[in-house]
Amino acid sequence: MLDRLGFGEDANNARRVWRDLYNPRRGHRLPPPLLRLFGRAVPEVVDEIAFQPRRSLGQRALADVIPFRREDQVAIRRGAMQLAAGRLPAELPPRFLVSASAIALASGAPATELSNRVVTHLSNLAAAERNQSRTWLAAVA
Questions:
Q1: Angle at 108 between CA 102 and CA 113, to 5 degrees
Q2: Which of 44, 97, 131, 134 has its CA 20 to 30 A from that of 26?
Q3: 107: which residues sit within 8 A by CB, 6+ positions away?
Q4: pTM of the predicted model, to two decimals?
């Protein structure tokens, strides 16, 4: 999936981790027949789940409905730096805040402060959206 979305370096890193984790010489619990299927099965499963059109999604693929591009990854990393510095990345879409928070935590940001800042921000966004909905409903009525 990472390859198909244009994240070749991340895909190579994931493959390397997979090979290290499931190296038959190191011992693991996956049966050899399953490991032999991995190279063929995983691309087929990813294609079916993420890239094939679904009736329930208006004949669109999941990857089209919830797109994720290199620019999104850059925005998440930039947001993580802002969070780690104690600032809210106001331009970062809420769906990316969890990923940015995880990166900020991994870089040493204090968990309690980070959690409070992000939860407060999301609560404020939700309240603003509720108020906007009420205003729209009142205008329609």
A1: 75
A2: 44
A3: 80, 81, 84
A4: 0.74
